[in-house]
Amino acid sequence: MLQHLRDYILLMRLNRPIGLWLVLWPTLWALWLAAGNVPPLDVLAAFALGTVLMRSAACVIEAYANRDLAGADGEDTDRPIAAGRIQPREALLLFALLCASALAAARNLNGLALALSLPAVLLASAYPFIKRLHSLPQAHLGIAFSWGIPTAYAAVRNTVPWTQVAMMMAATVCWAIAYDTYYAMSREPRAADDDTNRLPFGRDPAFVGLLQLAALALLWFVGVQAERGAVFDLGLIAAAAFALQQQHATRTLDRRACLQAFINNNGFGVAIFMGLVWDYTLTGLAATDAFNQAAVNLQEMLPADTCTDPLPTRQGGASVPDYGYCVERDITYTPHGWSHPMQLDVFTPRRETVSPVVLLFHGGHWQFGRRHLMEAVATTLARRGYVAVNVSYRLAPMSRFPAQLQDAQAAARWLRSNAVRLNADPFRMGVWGFSSGAHIGAMLAMIAPDDPWGAPDLRVRAVVGGGTPTDLTRFNPVDGMALFGVTFEQDPDLYRHASPLYQVSKRAPPTFLYHGRDDTEVPLEQALWLKTALADAGVPVELNVLRGVGHAGVTEAAIEPAIGFLDRTLKP
Description:
By secondary structure, the protein is of the alpha/beta class.
């Protein structure tokens, strides 16, 4: 029994994992590039398992195809079909089982990824037979090994950027020809038509080095297109060092050195992968630190609880009211027992009349940022006669949606219970958010009272949203994974339920949207979709498209039109 199990392990070459790693590295490169950092863990697991199964299937079908070529060199001990310890029909059955298992591992991927998985089976099946028909079987091997690249993009993005993918596949083909040539140089041919005889560039390591250089050049272009940084380039340099080491070791064409050079290509793949991982990690940390440091710096400059006088009236200027304001900071608004106590700041105009209210929600991909980033909006609103409530909310991925919506509802309830003290009118309440904060504000305003996430005791009268993600089913999958903990393919209903676009009804409040035409983080289409849906429902809606403006800085350009909208909507 144990001997038979060992024979199956030998047949699938699980005792030689180097081939598995060489197949896996290009797929991992693609997954990280497609996801823009760590891919969804279930997708990563599906590709890792699928790679093991498909590589094993390829080894089985190759052993079956070459069953009559073995034996001439005394290597029958690790060729169980040639030795008669496994029958050919058993090998075919195992091959079919492995292919079916690989497809089963991919069953939760989207339709495009599943469709692209099928050619992988055909490529793996055809290699042992096609390699007898032409003089460069390594090219077919490279295509088979690189097929995980478009499939990875399809699984993560539900689309394939073919220019980038083609460069990555070409790089993988060059690399596969290079290391498979080293492998062929390390062995004696077993038969006249064995592919170890087929060395397209002869026994010259320099040609192998040129192929590796071409692979690195193509990957560098991919890095430029994907806007990767210096750490990724260092990974390519480290891979080049592995290639130079292989060149030096194989200069005498010693077979042992050639075999070691083949194995050493694992380091080549690792170097590129680690460069990519650390580049994304350090870039993400730097962006997060810069974002949070900006908020910290702003917070440190802000005055504590205090009152500010109105600004002097400009001679000949437009008649814009300025009441001055008072601010109360760091008020815990969440009820006792909330999973994370959250705080807000309140800015109240210095006037005796009851004022309308605006709740403010900051941006930051739902994952970082602080409420102080909305400070300029809060102070401007208070000067203009609004009670501005600047709200912090729980951040993903530690807190999954709808935690952020629940925090917004708790802030609205706190405002209502403190309305008399603040001289605020909770029945004239609006929301103003930017980016992910605009999504939260829109959900607070538009979700139905009888919805499981709804709040029948609350009513928002106006919405202002800047750079608003309105349809999360067609948004950044990395942010979606952080916010929900699952991919869109795993739970499309959750993504749809959490999208303001699908919460639109005739009861939605009047809405003012502003968006940069050059916004690459939240495409302008997101605002256009919501505007169309609101207009179709008969809800008053305005969209201010700012030319020459991207995602950052868009609020400053739209603050006056937005306040004008609030004046028309919330003030008597």
